Amino acid sequence: MKLNPEQESILKGDNGRVMAMAMETVVKYGEAFGAKKLVPIKSAHLAGTFGIGPYRAYIQVLRQIVSEGLRVKVPTTVNPKPGYDLNFINRHIVFTNQQSLEQLLTAIGITPNYSCVCYEKANVPSFGDRLAWAESSAVQFANSVLGARTNRNSILIDVCCAITGFTPEFGYLLDAHRRGQILVKLNIKKMDAPALGYVLGRKVVDKVPVIEHYPFTRIELKNMGGSMAASGGVAMFHVEGLTPEAPDMKTVFDRPPMETITVTQEDLDALRIRKSEMSGIVIFGCPQMTCEETLAIAERFVNKRVEIPTWFCLAPDELTLFKAHYLYGKTLDAGITVSQDCPLAAFSMRLNRKRIITPSGKMLYYLKGVNYGTEDDCLRACGVLQ
Ligand code: F3S
């Protein structure tokens, strides 16, 4: 890899031992993927926000960074908190390093947004910006919907990029890897975007799918992308005539599609649980909900009362907006718990192993004891829709 004089000097140790180690990590990461150079980044997003035991080495690295007084070089946001206070087990057994981890993140200069939908307010990239983000759902949104450029970085690689301000140029930073590979046709009567994302992730795995035109909302794109990035390794998708790099099929494909697949209504419906009333908890918000998304769902709970525990999980800055709206009080009156945590982490060790129903394909993929339901299935499960 060819480094410029500034990068060479960091690697030699002119900015200290820990900075040199961070640079060496970024360089080796790039070399492993055939990158020819490092490029400056506009922002970073870190995924390591759960203070769990297996993150001991990660926390040790953060301590070393803090001990040399290093801070992030670019605006850097972080993923949600994991529900440390949700119950005794989370507090005393699972997330025992939570407080020290948060102190370290603060010390390196992160923006304390604690949200996986950072692209909504705290860290909004422009078209063409090069980034070093972790968190697969955020990566997916940045690449696909905003036209920014980031690979699916891991925890620690994200930190090393944020500290040095550089990322290796390979993969989704390059035009060649952002073009469509698989054409997706839809034979669907009722759109269920998270289910479509889940099905596509399983089918295309790590390719770039191009969905024929459908007028998805921004919220649908978020939830479809989050599911697709979990059930597959997808880092970018296009929607013909909707997402910025797919004005038409001719532009998005630079060669004939490797494959054409058709997703049917049956494919989507097959994910849904048949008896939604068998569920014990209902969870909305993975990826975390925006205020706009919450208001649309909250309308459906007005003057009703949930029959089983029901959670809304919002990004903290979106929750602030929601609290100012009259529907916030109505939501509490309906018996809903409103949270700012990552529900997947928060409920990973839930008591009684109660079955969860959720309209999140990401939770379905990662968490044991989870059923998938459409928004209406979830409303039926909590007793507010017949
Ligand atoms: Fe976000 Fe946690 Fe889901 S980080 S995407 S709410 S797993």
Q: Any key phrases for this structure?
A:
386 residues, alpha/beta, five-stranded parallel sheet, four-stranded parallel sheet, 17 helices, 38% helix, globular, binds FE3-S4 cluster
Task: Describe the SSE topology.
Blueprint (H helix, E strand, L loop, with lengths): L4 H8 L4 H16 L5 E3 L2 E4 L9 H12 L8 E3 L9 H7 L3 H10 L23 E3 L2 H9 L12 H8 L1 E3 L13 E6 L5 H12 L4 E3 L6 H14 L6 E2 L9 H4 L6 E6 H5 L11 E9 L1 H8 L11 E5 L1 H8 L2 H8 L3 E3 L3 H4 L9 E3 L2 H6 L3 E3 L2 H7 L5
Helix pairs in contact: 1-2, 2-7, 3-5, 6-9, 8-9, 12-13
Bound molecules: FE3-S4 cluster (F3S).
Please, could you describe this protein's structure?
The structure is a single chain. The chain has 386 residues and is α/β, with parallel strands linked by helices. Helices cover 38% and strands 15% of the residues. The protein is built from 17 helices and 14 strands. The chain has helices at 5-12, 17-32, 56-67, 88-94, 98-107, 136-144, 157-164, 193-204, 218-231, 249-252, 265-269, 291-298, 316-323, 326-333, 343-346, 361-366, 375-381; strands at residues 38-40, 43-46, 76-78, 131-133, 166-168, 182-187, 209-211, 238-239, 259-264, 281-289, 310-314, 337-339, 356-358, 370-372. The strands form 4 sheets. A 5-stranded parallel beta sheet has the order 12-11-10-13-14. Helix 8 (193-204) links the parallel strand 6 (182-187) and strand 7. The longest helix is centred in the N-terminal third of the chain and has 16 residues, at 17-32. The radius of gyration is 21 Å and the shape is globular. The model has no long low-confidence stretch (mean pLDDT 96). It binds FE3-S4 cluster. FE3-S4 cluster binds at residues 79-80, 116, 137, 226, 286-288, 342-344, 362.
